Amino acid sequence: MRWEPLLLILLVASLSGLVILMTMTNRRHRWLALVTLAYLTGLSTIVFTPLSFDGTSVYIMPVGIGRVNLTQLDVFNLGFMENIVMTLPLGLLVKWLWPRLSLWGVGVFGLMVGSSIETAQYVLSHHWLINRSSDINDVLANAAGILVGGALVAVYLHVRNARQRKLQAQVG
Question: Are 149 and 89 in contact (CB under 8 A)?
Answer without folding.
Answer: yes
